[in-house]
C-alpha cells in the first residue's frame, strides 16, 4: 500500500502539467487597462500555478496537500456573472515562496453588484482587498488592490506594490469559486483564494 505522503506527491505531480487548463485562458477584456507587469502576471498564470504547486509538494501537512490537490483536480468553468453577488466565507492558500504551503483559516468576503459592475471585497482579517470583476476569456478577471487591517481600501494603480490581478472560476455545482493570483508581489509564488457561499 502506498504511503499517504507519496500518494499525495504522485497525485500532485501528475497535475503539474494539466491542472485547470481553462484558467490559462483568462483574458484581459478590451477597455481594461493594466500595467505591463500585471499583463505579464495574468499571461503567466499557468507557470505560476505549476511553480507554486511544485514547491507545495514539499509541505509536511498531508491534509493541506490533499486540500490543494482536491481544488486543482476539480474541473473549472466560467461562472455566470449574475450568479456571483452574495456573501461568502473565504480563505487564502499560498503556494510556494517564503513557505512551501500555507493554508489560512476562513474569513468573510462579499461580491456586490452596482448596476452592471461587480466588485469583490475581503471584509475581515489583517490583509484585505477590493477589486472589480470582468468577464474575460474562460474566467473572470479580477483587478484590484490590497490593504492592511482597517486602512482605507486602495484602488488599482494607486500604489503598484498593492495592485492585485487574478482569475476567478467556478468549481463544481455547489457555488464554490476560486480566485487564482499569479506571482503576488509578496510572500508566495501563487495564491488561491477559495470562496464558499454563505447560505
TrEMBL record:
Please tell me whether the keyword Signal is annotated for this protein. Answer: yes
Give the signal peptide as a residue range, or say none if absent.
Answer: 1-24
InterPro entries in alphabetical order:
DUF4893
Q: Tell me where on the tree of life, at the top rank, the source sits.
A: Bacteria
Instruction: Name the keywords, alphabetized.
Output: Signal
The name under which this protein is listed is: DUF4893 domain-containing protein
Write down the species: Devosia enhydra
